[in-house]
Amino acid sequence: MVTRNPIPRRLDMGSFGLGGPAPRDLLAILAVLFVTFSLRFFPATAIVPALLQLTPLAWRNGFLWQLATYPFIGAAGSGLWFLLELLFLYMFGKDVYFGLYRRHFWRLILWSSIGAALVAVAVHALAAGTGALEIPAPFAIMQGQWMLLVIFIAAFGTAHRDATVYLFFILPVPAHWMLWIEILFAFMGFLFSHDLPGFLGLCTAVGLSYLYVRANGSLRGGRRTLRELRLRLE
User: Fold this and answer.
1) Which of the 8 DSSP states describes residue 173?
2) CA 13, CA 99: separation in Å to the nearest integer?
């Protein structure tokens, strides 16, 4: 999936980046996403993800906890795609975790996701207040694992600029292009959903993740750079 310059090579395709120790924090996130995704399919428990995902109630009724909880609520969709998304989340999240370690790993998530939620909520409140734009499903494209994927991929692409990511396991692209590809995918989601707050929220998450990783200057080359960032921040 990934190669690193200046000695380009594919990672061991037998492991697909799944070898080595598994961060317990990341496993806990995956477990919570799976459980909350499952709760959507039972009438008695569907209220739980409904209250914890990001909705207009965050600004209309003061449900401010949604600004922090929504990245950990599994977004509805195809069950097969959901499992694939968890796989990608693990692959990128593992690299980010072992680069930043626990404290800055969580700070990255909260900094980017809460900042994105504030922008999205403000845009929706403005649109609703002025009546300038009809948004049938606000925040739909920035829920749960989709937001976390955006954050982890943006952090990876920022720190590993000289790596090559095999998009869809086929198309080689420089890792730093992934930030723009994420914005492109978010725009495609906007075209289908008309979710302007969600689109701007995803763009904000990309920008904030980039800024967090680049906070202490230019970072280049491999996993070591994230560890150097962690040491500088501490």
Assistant:
1) E
2) 22
Query: For the chain, percent helix, then strand, then coil, each to nearest 5?
Result: 65, 5, 30
Least confident of 68-77, 112-121, 166-175: 166-175
- Angstrom distance (rounded) from CA 106 to CA 85: 20
Say whether 165 sits in a helix, a strand or coil.
Answer: strand
Name the amino acid, one letter, at 107. R
> pTM score, two decimals?
0.82
DSSP line for 35-97: HHHHHTTSTTTTHHHHHHS--THHHHS--TTHHHHGGGSPPPS-HHHHHHHHHHHHHHHHHHH
Q: What are phi and psi of 192, to 5 degrees?
A: -85, -30
Burial status of residue 61 (CB atoms within 10 A of its CB: 0-12, 13-18, 19 or more): exposed
- C-alpha 35/C-alpha 17 separation (Å) is 24
Instruction: Please say whether the dihedral angle defined by the alpha carbons of residues 139, 141, 144 and 146, taken in this order, is positive or negative.
Output: negative
What local confidence, expressed as pLDDT, does residue 166 receive? 67
Q: 106, exposed or middle or buried, with CB in 10 Å at 0-12, 13-18, 19+? A: middle
